Each structure stands twice: as C-alpha cells, then as structure tokens.
Amino acid sequence: MRFGSRIRRRTKNEDDVRNSMTNEICDDRSETLAPPSPALPPPGGEGRGTAGVDAGSERQSTRKFIFFCKTFDTMKKLAGKVAVITGANQGIGKAIARAFAAEGARLALCARSAEKLAQTTAELKSAGVEVFSQPVDVTEEAAVDRFFAAVLERFGRVDILVNNAGAFDGGRIDELPLSAWNNVVGSCLTGTFLCSRRAFAAMKDQGGGRILNIGSISAQRPREGSAAYVAAKFGVWGLTQATALDGRPFGIACSCLHPGNVLVERRVDSGQASDAEPMMAVETIAEVALTMVTLPAHVNMLESIVLPVEQVYLGRG
Ligand SMILES: NC(=O)c1ccc[n+]([C@@H]2O[C@H](COP(=O)([O-])OP(=O)(O)OC[C@H]3O[C@@H](n4cnc5c(N)ncnc54)[C@H](OP(=O)(O)O)[C@@H]3O)[C@@H](O)[C@H]2O)c1
C-alpha cells in the first residue's frame, strides 16, 4: 500500500486541529497570538490546538498569553536565556518561539520573508517579549555570519539554537531538478551547519549551550518521491550526532527532534494525500522542544520521535 493512499476517517481530534488551523489562517487580525498556554495544547486531548475558538475566546487567549509572558519571570524555565530560532515566522518555528517566550526566553529570530518575520516579531513584542529579528537566508554563509554577529552584539551570548528552517520539494529522483535538491538540502542541512557553526563558537566561549535540530521521521522512514528531503534529514540526524560529539568537551549538547505529521499553514487543504493523514498541532511539537532544551545542563535527550498514534510509520508498507 502506498503511503497516504489509504482511505480513512479522520478522528475528532484531527478535525479539531484542522478547523483551528483554518480559523487562524482565515483570521487576519494581527492580535491573534496563541492558545492559553503557548507551550501546551488546551486540556481535552492531544492535538486539539485552538479547536473551535471564536473571536471572543481568541482575544481571551491572547490576553492570557500576554499575562503569562509578563508575570512570574524568575520562576520561568528559560528566564534570561537567549534562544536563536531559524524559520521562526510561521509553522513549527513560530510555535517554538511562543513556547520559549512564555518561559522567559529572549529571542533572536530569522527567516527569509521580512514581512512575515516583522509580523511575528510585533506579535511577540506586544506580549512583552524581548525579540531581535533579521531576515536571513540560512543557505548564505555571509548572511548567517552577519546575523550571529548581530545577535551577539545585542545579547552577548547564545544559550539555545533551534535549527528549524527547512523546505520540502518533491519529485521522483529521475524528475528532481537540481534547483529543488539545492533548495531542500540547502535550507535543511547546509543552513543547520552554518548556524550551528556560529552558535557552537559562541557557546564554546561562554562555557556551554544547546543546539536542537528539527529533523523528521523522513530521517528514518523515507516516503517515495522525496529524495532531497530524505537525504537532507538523514544528513541533519548525522550532523546532530557529530555536533553532540564535538560539543562534549565544551558542555554543548546537540539533539534532534523528529516530528511526524504536523498541521502547519501549508498543509491545510493542500490536496496532497500526505496532508490528509493524521496530524499533530504545532503546540505539541513546541512542547517537546521546550522539554528537550530545559533538561539539566549535563543531560541530553539526543533524539526524540514524535508522531500521531495513527500515523503510518512502523511496520512494512
Ligand atoms: N510540518 C510537518 O509535518 C513537519 C514534519 C517533520 C519535520 N518538519 C520540519 O519542521 C521544520 C519547520 O517546518 P514547518 O512545517 O513549520 O514548515 P513551514 O511552515 O514551511 O516553515 C518553514 C520555515 O522555514 C523558513 N525557511 C525556509 N527556507 C529558509 C531559508 N533558506 N532560510 C531561512 N529560513 C527558511 C520559512 O520562512 P521563509 O520562507 O520566509 O524563509 C519558514 O519560516 C522544517 O525543518 C521541516 O522539515 C515539519
């Protein structure tokens, strides 16, 4: 059976995740920020996201998020820490930014789209979060180096790097253009190398830090028609292990979070068979990312695989 070709009925939770995502995308009010606790899906079940919220409860959620960001600073898990997050203007990266901010982190964010990045930055700042952001293409060495120089100038340190930026471009291997290969391998793998190199140097000087790479279950179980993505994510997993090994003498931990299907904007009603499969909310992945970066400094969760219970992954296809 081909991946994604199976006809199945969506669960209530998946419908809730999809409905909430559609609501958020259709709602262009810039004040739409986050669920009540940005790191956690609301009670009632995995992956419910902001299910079924109306305009009034959205505003209430935003107020709660702002309240959470502005209070109890010293009790927060990332109080005062500087976290760099790539690809932070939408999807998983933006959810991680919200989750870290709610735990007191100071943020340095990048992505290519200046407009979306400015919008995300404004949303976070309006909640009282300290944010520095710069449009950066992580495949460009000089741009990455300038960004990290600016981050160090602004904050003086980098405690956490989340290499989240990535792109998917498919096609069977005999039909895969080199431009698609370069885009995917560049954003997922070369970008992770270029950002890790700069963050590692800063962390070495300051006596430690954490690098979290966003991999994929495609780093373990390939889908057909995704040679570039699979190769890039296998590379990210290999780079994670190499970085963790190089970081050992310097107190630098490096780990990899492999998500299964996560419902982000581009996967809503895309018409792709894989986008009709079981899904998780972005908040779920953000919660795992937060757990991985808030372990005691001498402990590293090297790898985590997080996927919907019903997602086809184990077994023979
Ligand atoms: N969603 C899933 O089901 C899923 C599953 C497994 C793994 N992942 C991984 O999770 C990460 C985030 O994915 P997502 O689903 O949230 O995707 P997304 O919504 O498409 O977000 C990708 C982010 O990366 C940025 N980006 C892409 N190319 C870039 C480049 N060259 N330089 C700088 N920023 C770049 C994008 O912003 P700009 O376009 O403005 O640059 C955007 O902020 C990716 O590494 C992806 O492979 C996702």
Question: How is this structure best summarized?
Answer:
With about 325 residues, the chain is an alpha/beta fold. The protein has 8 helices and 7 strands. About 40% of the residues lie in helices and about 10% in strands.
Classified in CATH, the superfamily is NAD(P)-binding Rossmann-like Domain
- Helix segment count? 8
- Strand neighbour order, sheet with most strands: 3-2-1-4-5-6-7
Proportion of strand residues: 5-15%
**Form type:** globular
Radius of gyration: 19 Å
Share of helix among residues?
Answer: 40-55%
> What is the top-level CATH class?
Alpha Beta
- Bound molecule kinds, no repeats: NADP nicotinamide-adenine-dinucleotide phosphate
Structural class: alpha/beta
Overall pLDDT level: 85
- Tally the beta strands: 7
Distance between the termini: 6 Å
CATH architecture name: 3-Layer(aba) Sandwich
Q: In the CATH scheme, what's the topology name?
A: Rossmann fold
Low-confidence stretches: 1-8, 22-53
Write down the domain tally.
1
3D architecture notes:
The protein has a single domain (73-306), classed as Rossmann fold (3-Layer(aba) Sandwich). It is built from 8 helices and 7 strands; from the N terminus they run ααβαβαβαβαβαβαβ. Residues 1-8 and 22-53 have low confidence and may be disordered. The protein is α/β, with parallel strands linked by helices. Strand 1, helix 3 (91-102) and strand 2 (106-111) form a beta-alpha-beta unit. Strands 3-2-1-4-5-6-7 form a 7-stranded parallel beta sheet, with helices on both faces.
